[in-house]
Amino acid sequence: MTYAIRDPERSIAEIDDEQLPVPEHRLHGAGHFLGLYGAEHVAATEFVIGAAFVAMGATINDILIGLLIGNTLAALSFWLITAPIAVKTRLSLYTYLDQNMGEMFSRFYNGANVLIFVAISAAMITVSATAVRALFDIPPQIYPYPTNIYFAIIAATASVIAVMVAYYGFNVLSEFATICTPWLMVMFTAGGMVLIPSLNEALTGYTTLESFSDFVSLAGTTVFTGINAEGEPGIGLVEVIGFAWAANTFSHFGLIDMALLRYAKKSIYGLCTATGMMFGHYIAWISAALMGAATASIMKLSIAVISPGDVAYYALGATGFVIVIIAGWTTANPNLYRASLAGQAVFPNISRQKVTLVVGAVVVVGSCFPFIYRSILPLLTYAGLTLVPIGGIVFAEQHIFPRLGYKSNWHRLTGLKDNKPALITWAICLVFGFGLDFLDVIPFVYLFLPTFVVAIVSYTLLAKAAGADKDYPEAERREQAFDRKVKEYHAELAAKEGHAHVEDTSLLTRGIRAVWIVIGLVVPAVLAWRVLFNSPNLYDYYVNRELFYDVTIWCTVIYFVFAWWDLQRSKALNRS
Amino acid sequence: MRMLKSVWFSGIALTIGCVAGSAQAQTSISVATVNNDDMIRMQALSANFAEENPDIELNWVTLEENILRQRVTTDIATGSGRFDVVTIGTYEVPIWAERGWLVPLHDMPEGYDVDDILASIRAGLSFDGTLYAAPFYGESSFTMYRTDLFEAAGLEMPAEPTWDFIKEAAAAITDRSNEVYGVCLRGKPGWGENMALLTAMANSYGARWFDENWQPQFDSEAWSSALDDYLMLLNEYGPPDAAKNGYNENLALFREGKCGIWVDATVAASAVTNPEQSKVAGNVGFALAPDNGLGKRSNWLWAWSLAISAGSQKQEAAKKFVAWATSDKYTELIAKQDGWSNVPPGTRTSLYRNPAYLDAAPFAEMALASIQAADPNDPTVEAVPYVGIQFVAIPEFQSIGTAVGHRFAKALDGSISREEALANAQWVTGKVIERARFIED
């Protein structure tokens, strides 16, 4: 870190790209973000969160309406809060904090990130481990802690491998994650379709649904019953909206997704997050809940204790193992990587290897405890509450300060080491947010809203007292000089790099694409459709389901081979 | 909302809950039950329990059967202890007991006569020799027949008939022109409908669902013979559209005088001998369920029972209630209020020694003999790895049983051949069990 990075005397080319605003020629259009967010929010967590809504006792109407409203609010938050700041600064939040908040603030922030990302990574690796436990004859893990030493060994081994992959093969796995999106979307939807007849039969004795109202009735009676796992009346519409909105608080109100949206040509592309919200957090959550309820019914277990691996296996057969492992690892991998990076920022004097090792060790231990993944929804909500004050602080600097005549970059201009108003604001907000939670004044999923406001007000007042409303002519001249040099550098870069993406339209590529689309996606979707709508009784259901299982695993293999081939050809063409 | 917080603070909450619980003067227990006549009657009579146990308060949660099963499963599997006493059948008891979800009932309150419970019912509600649920209703199946038709045909029903005799008798008394059908058997698909009858029938032919390695056995000669005879009986001597007839439909046919022989639940006996409900009430005889000379009869065993959740914090109070509701005193209470014909049958030996009950239920001795002849731990001629007579006590059985039931119903209505039905049964059972064993073992 440090403000010395913005020294105009320094050669811009020597500065790491991450520390500079994104150049204009690297900006992306709406299509890029539609795909990106679709991928980002269809992950292994959806298996867990879908089931969590069932265990919390939401009703079907609250789910259908509440998730729609909550996810719409989330997409609007990305559009109105995250995207404008990202587009204005063209920086990731890490870089922004690094350049504006001082060393201590960055260190605390990164420390919080270490904890959050370690927990998410551990949870996702546990999810993957639940998929392979059946291969090793390990009994279902229905308690918060591991009840079988071999499960702990598998989870720990998976963690060690994930840590190594995160360390050595991050780029390959990230690349691989990009081709998973369409397949994950189809599989999540297909899984729900495949298990609905089984669920319906268990309740009504019939495998067929005649209408959407039948579906609502089935889901309302068996899945979203309004009664929680403790047999008490469950959460209501307000809470469902809150959970959906708050599930990604740290991304929108907390501004972490500035890292992605800084590449948006226009801030309205923040609305492209709707693909992730409406598919991953709507269809996939509902589908996962249906799958969970059906599996619970088959296994004569409670949805609160069945594992994602079992759910996926009953929904998708052998492909279920693949989806849980892939969805788990593609989520765990970037989070593990983020945790390591954040860890290095907290302890800059300790070697990267050592930090990674320590972070990895914590993940290894955490992944042995099913409690963590089963608590993913409150975990995400509390993580959001912790990080939302940072969003409020940056929001104040970027939107409130200019209107009040304060300097957005006032702290950098002062040249002081630590941004004390920011540190104090964060501390106030944590006390305020968690204090409200303790007092149980409002549902905890909504705590981020007053906390965000408190952050804005506190920081505005404290920053003014610290000199945000003053002029720093010398420093401002230096900043302007630096910004000019960055512009010039970007212009040179644009001339060198070009910015036209070349579309591969060769016959071979079209053929490859047709194979992964038709065989990899359309065939499983049609087979799942057949299971749902062409199974007049349980026997026919099993015949259709087995066919779906048997064919889909091969479709999956073909999909990944051809989609990967397609990706590599496209990359090679653009490189050349 | 509160639930989610408790995920984080469950340890503290549990501690506080325990302390608070122990401070209460009156123990409140929740009883989850089905909305059938027996349980509604029990609810009405529970004031007597309250009088005897003023320190225990009963909270009744009465639900439709499928919903109850789902709700109770969730509660018990998570060990949340919301329900202290749950109503379950012989199908669930061994499965749940094996998972450690139920409290063993080896130390019931003093005065509770465990030995009076019929041995076969006790076996059906036990796991590894330990009783896990106490019965309040039990049944088996037997043969009901029209004595007048038999007399007219010059036949005499043996007390222990064989399937060959049933075939012979059905042929002799069938009179389609007068809508009198020789035999009525369950044909409606479902694990509790045609497959209950067919599984029990197949047992007597030496068939079994699985061998000791959990390999399906529908490709055996025994299953082929059993299904062949079943199809022949219903096609030749059964009522039209037999594949649509379950317990209720056959009961209606028998009461209308349209069935010569009916092999079904012992509970039907009171309905077919009640002159207010049955046109043939005075002409009904009873015999054991048929066999095939292999040492196993085709009678099944079922009991509704009360069990205590392992998650219950009030197990002693729950035991007191279970003991009261399944005791001979409770039976006497019902008899006093509603008459002996309304007492839940099939659970206690003492009931079948009671002259008042035997007078009210002339079929009682045959029903008792049928229940006693059933052994859920040894249901088949050859050894099997499972418990259960007309079902296999594994979680997957409901769906497999119904799937197979659909194929056999198809064979009955002529849509597919017997061979195809058996091949389909073999395939679907193998597939489902293979997946289940893979994921659950």
Keywords:
heterodimer; A: 576 residues; mainly alpha; Hydantoin permease; 22 helices; 73% helix; 0% strand; globular; B: 441 residues; alpha/beta; D-Maltodextrin-Binding Protein, domain 2; 2 domains; eight-stranded mixed β-sheet; two-stranded antiparallel sheet; 18 helices; 10 strands; 14% strand; disordered N terminus
Structural features, described:
- The complex is a heterodimer of chains A (576) and B (441).
- Chain A contains 22 helices and no strands.
- Chain A has helices spanning 30-40, 45-55, 60-89, 93-100, 103-132, 149-168, 170-204, 212-223, 237-246, 258-261, 274-299, 308-316, 318-346, 352-366, 370-374, 376-404, 410-414, 420-439, 448-466, 473-497, 507-533, 538-575.
- The model of chain A has no long low-confidence stretch (mean pLDDT 85).
- Chain B is of the alpha/beta class.
- The chains are: A mainly alpha (576), B alpha/beta (441).
- At the A-B interface, α7, α11, α12 and α22 of A face α1, α4, α17 and α18 of B.
Question: Outline of this structure?
Answer:
The complex is a heterodimer of chains A (576) and B (441). Chain A is mainly alpha-helical and 576 residues long. Chain A has helices at 30-40, 45-55, 60-89, 93-100, 103-132, 149-168, 170-204, 212-223, 237-246, 258-261, 274-299, 308-316, 318-346, 352-366, 370-374, 376-404, 410-414, 420-439, 448-466, 473-497, 507-533, 538-575.
